[in-house]
Amino acid sequence: MTTIRPFTCSDLFKFNNVNLDPLTETYGLAFYMQYLAQWPEYFQVAESPSGEIMGYIMGKAEGRAENWHGHVTALSVSPEHRRLGLAAKLMHTLEEISERKKCFFVDLFVRVSNKVAVDMYNKLGYTVYRRVLEYYSGLDDEDAFDMRKALSRDKDKKSVIPLLHPVRPEELD
């Protein structure tokens, strides 16, 4: 049985099987530690009965007024544990945390080319809010979809009304 539990510092030594996947954005140690220190409730891990890390999610709460929201910074499941519903469980956990923090919505950025992830987020109730041009820097400067899901505080679902034009990273609020 899989356990969803808070990420700990020692997990940084055990999540290579998840983090070395080519679909996962990998960050420096200081970045993970910053999230663990500032938003510990948003940093969760899926663990097998044997103690193996199967996946994780990290995020934060940010914004103000009607833009107060939960944000998914990273979600990854190791290749051998995909298609078991772990990503959905981790997303649900982050959404519940965001509900308790009285957020209006949850958002995330995903590569436009990552059709598997886009389809999964759609099934979880997320919609494309806007396209962010050249969000992912590198060889391809790939665009991202900013996907959102309204939470119960956003009764009129204003936060998920799509923008009709793309934006650049420097225009993100």
TrEMBL record:
What sequence ranges are listed for the domain N-acetyltransferase? 2-152
Task: List keywords of the entry alphabetically.
Answer: Acyltransferase, Cytoplasm, Nucleus, Transferase
Compartment(s) where it occurs, according to its Swiss-Prot or TrEMBL record: Cytoplasm; Nucleus
Carries keyword Phosphoprotein? no
- Write out the GO cellular component annotations: NatB complex; nucleus
The keyword Cytoplasm is assigned to this record: yes
In UniProt terms, what function does this protein have? Catalytic subunit of the NatB complex which catalyzes acetylation of the N-terminal methionine residues of peptides beginning with Met-Asp, Met-Glu, Met-Asn and Met-Gln. Proteins with cell cycle functions are overrepresented in the pool of NatB substrates. Required for maintaining the structure and function of actomyosin fibers and for proper cellular migration.
Q: How does it assemble?
A: Component of the N-terminal acetyltransferase B (NatB) complex which is composed of NAA20 and NAA25.
Family the UniProt entry places it in: Belongs to the acetyltransferase family. ARD1 subfamily.
Protein's UniProt name: N-alpha-acetyltransferase 20
